[in-house]
Amino acid sequence: MGIAIVGISEVPTKKDPSRTRWDILLDVCKGAVRDAGIDKDDVHAVISPNPMAQPDMANDMALGKVPEVLGLKGCRDIAVTNAGGASNTNCLRISESLIESGQAKFILIPHTTVQSDIPVADLINFFATAPLDKQWEYPYGVTFNGSMGLITNRYMYETGATAEEMAAVTASLREWGSLDPNSIFYGKKCSVEDVLNSRMISSPLRAKECNLLADGGGALVVTSHEIAKEFNKAVYKLGHGTRFMSATPFMRDDLFHRKAYKESSQDALKAAGLSIEDMDIRQIYGAYPYTQCSALEGYGAIKEGHGAAAWAEGRCGPGGDLPCTTMGDATGRGHTGSGVSMAFYIETVRQLRGEAGERQVKNAEHALLTTSGGSVMNTCTTVFGRSSR
Amino acid sequence: MSEYKKPLPVIQPYSQAFWDATKDGKFLIQHCNSCDSNIFYPRRDCPECWSNDLDWIEAEGKGKVFSFSITHEGVEPMFQEDLPIVLAWVDLPEGPRVNTNIINCDPEDVEIGMEVEVVYVKATDDVTIPYFQPVGV
Q: Which site from A71, A176, A208, B112 is most exposed, i.e. has the minimal number of CB atoms within 10 Å?
């Protein structure tokens, strides 16, 4: 039982409106199917993350254009999931149920996002209104950055994390991103001073700690553990756990998600028969720096309140003893809507295949990956491994 | 009065009483007669026990800043002239935490733990929005 990822493909994250949504989509679908080495007609289902803020593409995907345009003659089923940044996680979970019940052997999970052709005010409006409450937050000028600034300020107040330590998180994420040809920041490092000298957006968050919206896309091909054994480059999903907190941040008791990170990771690790110490990499999709700290605390990898210090000591960046978030998260990669988590899954596969280039964590066998959707409404934690248990 | 350009709260049937009260300078929260919970934001049913036997009680209108964030940029055009905007979460002595803005003070003076009180600003004839300000402004 269980699923494995046997094909991946990705286009570089950048701002380039001449590269259309369909260009990206077709390239990553063909790329992932070819990477898997299967025939296009072996794809039994297409399960897609909803392309946020792009209503035309969302309709195309929801109503079946992807298998039709690609001529996937073996396609039996399609579905779109929408859980914001956790959409891809739900695609994997639907795929797992179709594969385990024998309804599909190979499933394609494609993502595409182009935001560079959308006016900035519309993007701010989308990211302010999609996850935020129209009655109790939006009339007060809450933005996504503002909402995360509120949590970050309280995190720093409770833990004593300094501005320098918090800035070190972004500097490390950018260091990972600078080593990634698919990052918008490829070759562009950013020091702690650069972060601290950038404009204040929503205190304590400065410009370099907020997300640069960009275009991108990626795709996965998944199959069963049994079939995956015939593939050289399979990466196996070994366990999963999810915890929901709340839609609206000010309603949340578990404000830094430590309990949710703890419980979801414990579920995932238990199913995999592994412990947090067995994890060679921790991939944390939180889109804002505090999550990179509180996740480590929740996992039990770092003592509560000391997450930012671990980043400041260089432990989580390239060459550190606790490598985390090797694709740089949204702040080190560029934010591609529902696609950041796709980039996380692809990066995890690359690391466990040993194909992560300059970012490669030596002998990586196991990785823990957490995604979140909305205003961090949930933590969805998965354990992946190079072999099937 | 000039035309109000910012987004008005999208009022629901079960929150109408809250917005009616703000026009009279009252900050209401819901109270569940079945399980004694104080509830914010207003809902049709109690989220603790699902009873629909809900009453309104008037909050004292005081609170403490749990967290805040000063937004300097990155807002939609209609909020531009309000910058910097002090976003805040305020804990009410009645229990609930509310999302608001701290107004009528220098943003740099806002601190976590600061005592604040509600202040009402008329947006339109139909809607008055509650904000908070430092106690004793």
A: A71
* Euclidean distance between CA atoms A288 and A308, whole angstroms: 12
- Residue A135 to residue B41, Cβ atoms within 8 A: yes
Predicted ipTM?
0.97
In a domain, A241, yes or no: no
A67 is a domain residue: yes
Asked if residue B42 is part of any domain, the answer here is: yes
Task: Give me the percent of chain A exceeding a pLDDT of 70.
Answer: 100
Residues of B in contact with A203 (CB under 8 A): 69-72
- Return the pLDDT at A105: 98
**Quick check: A141 contacting B, CB < 8 Å?**
yes
Residue A360 falls inside a structural domain? no
Whole-number Å distance between alpha carbons of B102 and B83: 12
- pLDDT tens by residue, A45-77: 999 999 988 989 999 999 999 999 999 999 999
Chain B hits for A134, CB-CB cut-off 8 Å, are: 7, 9-10
Cβ-Cβ contacts under 8 Å for A72 (sequence gap 6 or more): A40, A41, A43, A46, A66, A108
CB contact under 8 A, A139 and B8: yes
* Structural domains counted in chain A: 1
Tell me the residue range of the domain where A220 lies.
3-117+216-228
Burial A11-21 (b: 16+ CB within 10 A, else e): bbbbbbeebeb
Q: For chain B, positions 45-84, list CB contacts with chain A under 8 A.
A: 66-77, 79, 82
pTM assigned to the model = 0.96
Q: What is the pLDDT of residues B83-132, one digit of tens each?
A: 999 999 999 999 999 999 999 999 999 999 999 999 999 999 999 999 99
Chain B interface, best mutation among A124, A133, A137, A143, by max B CB count within 10 A? A143
